[in-house]
Design brief:
The complex is a heterodimer. Chain A is mainly alpha-helical. Chain A is built from 6 helices and no strands. The longest helix of chain A has 75 residues, at 106-180. Chain B is mostly helical. Chain B has one domain (2-444, 460-511). Chain B is 76% helix and 3% strand. Chain B has helices spanning 7-22, 27-55, 77-104, 108-130, 134-152, 158-189, 194-200, 206-224, 232-236, 242-267, 273-294, 298-318, 322-353, 364-367, 369-383, 389-404, 407-436, 451-454, 467-485, 487-503, 505-512; strands spanning 58-61, 72-75, 447-449, 459-460. In chain B, the strands form 2 sheets. In chain B, strands 1-2 form a two-stranded antiparallel ribbon. Chain B has a two-stranded antiparallel sheet with strand order 3-4. The longest helix of chain B has 32 residues, at 158-189. Classes of the chains: A mainly alpha, B mainly alpha. Chains A and B meet through helix 1, helix 2 and helix 3 of A and helix 5 and helix 6 of B.
Chain lengths: 274, 516
């Protein structure tokens, strides 16, 4: 028996082609793969039977081995049947889904979906965390600004009180001096009124005669300051609120978008399975 | 007696032919034919077992050609034992599917397709067990596969078509691998008769032996769903109709295991590949059971335990001792009945509630106590609770593994115990959710499969479970328990079968008639 390389090379090529096609996702390609593979293997069996010889009659010398031929016939018939079955399968698959691609198995899809859902909910959670952090920051900023404002207010009030107190002490001093000079109470009151009504301040006397006026002024100034401050505060609050609203809206839109994408990714067939 | 050997193969084929000729008419006659054919198969298998046990292997030469030239069927202890259990199981499943068809008031079409496909598959399984020729084994595989293709895609719904596509392509790849191995074997030895191969392989160069053995092993491992090539099984089995899944789970993988036993015992006895098989068994046990723990669907969970428990049988074979082989055969017989009855009970649960998803089931304990018992007994049997045959099979394997003395079998024994525990965990988890917690009852009359899904009458849940359905499942559960009661004589029988396997002489002499 001599071994020729050609049949083996042909077997190898056919089997390799068949296996490559068999690995395809499309059923028709897989079917052609099965046919090619089957023929390659049949050729291998025939080759394994040895040299070709004469027709196999008992007693004739140099006959071909009939057994591999019988085996190949059987194998061909079986491949034919399976091919017909696969064609029916392809047809049914095409009827049902409009394609002959073999889908991933359920387990694979489920694992992939679970991973995807995990990613998505992580993303949503991260966004929510961001939003919460932003809110907390803004609240802290507001609180800080309010505290500063309150401190400034307190300082101004203290200053005003001190000045009012000084005016009072000066007035008392002046009245005490008047009494020591022997002025009567009526006289004192009259002079005080004169001083209060006098237009210009006489620095020589050392007494701020228009004390009442000054007090009024100071009070007015104080009130104005307070109002201004409140207006500023209101504006600030409004601005902060608007910023927060904006951020919240943005956040909600993002979350909704994520949820929609998530819902799309959820296969109704796999619902409730995990 | 020798003439009876071909009956388990020919009778179902004949019945399938007659039924195809009858078509959709005469439903009573149809179911009678199926049941009678399978019933006779059971009786003949029992006779064959008795004869093979007392008189040694029985041989039938097909077409009258003597052994090395023609193809022969050989019935030795192992094949008749497996044949008896498998035909008893297929008989019960046939009763189940006939009762199901009557209960559902199905049209004639399903019975006219389902029964012939089922019978062809049964014939293929019997042929694989009895085959004394490697090429005939290939034909038997194709026979049972073509039956199973039809059963798996029964009804032609989208999930079944998808599962059927992967299953078919996977099976085809394995068949092509088998054919390549046949070509190499024939080129190297000039024969495909198992008995003659047993004599001739020893004379071949070591690398050729290795090549043939590994190619055949890979082809059989795909059929038996052994770990690196097991991914197709949990994907395709759960979508099939309940009786089909039950028979697939019980028998088809076991045909692969049976072929591995023949390969390892008869053709390449005590070769170095045994160590490889040990590692593979370890991976199969652990990968399968970890998959089972993660599942929430009953059928998928059971499919993963199926993969996992194939590992026990491979372990027994890989030990290369009489005790190990005996344990593997015992475990195989136990597993055929238990796995089939579990899948059938799951079919009943689906019929009763409309779902097999554990997250939607609940309260089955109170609503259907009978179903709960029917599930509980084989489930505990599977996880190896002491008095049952699952435990006894594991004890046989553990004893054989520890008697070996090497470190690797000891590791496998430990892995086997861990697997057993994890199986119990997976089963207990399902039990707690589906049976014990508060009811999530689906009302009777809920449409399970609407008309658009199947193109047939809608399947509707019922509160009534027909007597014949529960009786057939109950018979299987009792068969599983019978292994416990008869464990003594049965393990003695498997021991004799294993001894006969490793001796190899009886098989070869019976086939070749003592000629060298």
């Amino acid at each position: 028996m001599t071994v020729t390389l050609l049949p083996y090379a042909a077997c190898f090529a056919m089997v390799a082609t068949g296996v490559t096609l068999l690995l395809e996702r499309s059923l028709v390609r897989a079917l052609t793969g099965v046919i090619t593979l089957g023929n390659g293997v049949n050729l291998l069996i025939i080759t394994a039977g040895g040299d070709p010889g004469g027709p196999p009659y008992v007693g004739t010398p140099g006959i071909a081995d009939p057994l591999p031929q019988a085996m190949v016939l059987t194998a061909i018939v079986i491949t034919l049947g399976v091919t017909a079955y696969l064609l029916a399968l392809v047809h049914r698959s095409w009827q049902l889904s409009g394609s002959d691609e073999v889908q991933d198995d359920t387990e694979d899809r489920r694992v992939r979906l679970r991973a995807r859902r995990g990613e998505l909910s992580d993303a949503v959670r991260a966004r929510q965390d961001d939003y919460r952090r932003l809110l907390a920051e803004q609240r802290a900023e507001l609180a800080r600004m309010e505290a500063e404002q309150a401190e400034r207010q307190r300082l101004r009030e203290v200053d005003l009180e001190r000045r009012i107190f000084r005016v009072h002490t000066e007035l008392e001093q002046w009245m005490r001096e008047g009494r020591r000079q022997g002025l009567s109470e009526e006289e004192l009151l009259r002079r005080l009124e004169d001083a209060g009504l006098r237009e210009d301040v006489a620095p020589a006397e050392g007494v701020p005669v228009d004390n009442l006026r000054r007090l009024e002024e100071l009070r007015e100034q104080y009130e104005r300051g307070r109002e201004e401050q409140a207006a500023r505060e209101r504006a600030l609050r409004r601005r902060l609120k608007a910023r927060q609203r904006e951020a919240r809206k943005e956040m909600r839109a993002a979350i909704r978008e994520e949820r929609e994408r998530q819902a799309l990714a959820r296969d109704p067939e796999l619902e409730g399975e995990d | 007696m020798e003439g009876l050997v071909c009956v388990p193969v020919l009778l179902p084929l004949l019945a399938a032919g007659v039924k195809l000729a009858i078509g959709g008419r005469l439903r009573r006659l149809q179911s009678a034919i199926s049941l009678v054919a399978l019933g006779i198969s059971v009786a003949v298998s029992a006779l064959l077992l008795a004869a093979a046990d007392t008189r040694g292997p029985l041989v039938t030469e097909l077409g009258g050609w003597p052994a090395p030239i023609g193809i022969c069927l050989v019935a030795d202890r192992l094949s008749t034992l497996v044949l008896l259990v498998s035909s008893a199981v297929t008989f019960c499943v046939m009763v189940y599917s006939v009762a199901n068809a009557y209960a559902e008031q199905e049209h004639d079409a399903p019975m006219a397709i389902f029964h012939p496909a089922f019978l062809v598959m049964v014939a293929g399984v019997a042929d694989a067990f009895l085959s004394g020729d490697l090429f005939n084994l290939f034909v038997a595989f194709e026979l049972l596969l073509s039956g199973s293709y039809v059963l798996l895609t029964f009804g032609g719904t989208e999930p079944r078509i998808r599962a059927g596509a992967t299953y078919t392509l996977m099976a085809l790849a394995s068949s092509m691998l088998f054919l390549i191995a046949l070509a190499i074997t024939y080129a190297a030895t000039g024969t495909l008769s198992l008995a003659q191969l047993a004599q001739r392989f020893a004379g071949l160069p070591l690398h050729v032996q290795f090549l043939v053995e590994l190619t055949l092993l890979l082809a059989f491992a795909i059929k038996a769903a052994i770990f690196p090539v097991s991914a197709w099984l949990p994907d395709s089995y759960p979508t099939a109709p309940a009786p089909a899944t039950a028979v697939f789970a019980g028998l088809l993988t076991k045909v692969g295991v049976y072929s591995i036993i023949r390969l390892e015992a008869l053709l390449f006895p005590r070769g170095p590949v045994a160590t490889l098989l040990m590692w593979v068994a370890l991976a199969t046990m652990l990968a399968g059971v970890l998959g089972a723990v993660a599942q929430t669907d009953l059928k998928r969970m059971l499919s993963f335990t199926l993969v996992s428990h194939i590992g026990y049988m491979v372990f027994g074979v890989a030990l290369s001792t009489v005790a190990g082989m005996s344990g593997a055969i015992f475990y195989m017989l136990h597993h055929i009945t238990v796995q089939t009855s579990l899948f059938l009970v799951t079919g009943l649960i689906e019929r009763r509630t409309g779902t097999t998803s554990v997250s939607r089931l609940g309260g089955l304990m109170t609503s259907t106590p009978l179903l709960a018992v029917l599930f509980f007994v084989p489930a505990m049997n599977l996880s190896g609770i002491p008095p049952m045959s699952g435990f006894l099979g594991k004890v046989l394997l553990v004893e054989a593994g520890l008697a070996d003395g090497r470190p690797l079998p000891a590791v496998l024994v430990a892995a086997g115990l861990v697997t057993s525990l994890l199986t119990l965990y997976a089963i207990a988890k399902t039990w707690g959710k589906a049976f014990w917690r508060g009811p999530r009852a689906v009302r009777a009359g809920t449409v399970v499969e609407s008309e658009e899904d199947t193109g047939e009458e809608p399947t509707v849940t019922t509160t009534l479970l027909p007597l014949a359905l529960t009786a057939s499942v109950g018979a299987l559960v009792v068969l599983g328990l019978a292994f416990t009661v008869l464990a003594g004589p049965l393990s003695a029988l498997t021991h004799r079968a294993a001894a006969e396997l490793w001796a190899r002489e009886p098989y070869v002499t019976a086939v070749l008639g003592g000629a060298p």
